[in-house]
Amino acid sequence: MLPLKASLRVHVAVIAVLLCLTLAFVATTSQDTAPRVFYGIFFLLVTGAALAEYRKETSLAEGHLVGNGTITELRIGVHGKRSVKYRFVAFDGKQYQGESDWGYAAGERG
Questions:
Q1: Which of 110, 106, 102 is nearest to 5 (CA)?
Q2: What is the pTM of this model?
Q3: What's the pLDDT tens digit per position in 64-74?
């Protein structure tokens, strides 16, 4: 059984923060009213979506349960990056399946 740990995707959060900061900068430094309004509204929408996703991922990472599953396919791609297909039966009795990037293989990260 592979020990997998739930974690937040930090790179996604960093990109969202940089995008929000860029939108806020453009909205506050523009001379015309239309771009200020457009980028200001876009900034608020992107910020709200990023915060909602962060809260969802935080609750998933902190409130996870441990269960048994089956890896149905393991593909090794470029630079050792792996893609895992899996399935499991949840506590509600339903079978679920999905696919996830597993990251780099141990010892291959450079």
A1: 102
A2: 0.47
A3: 677 788 888 88
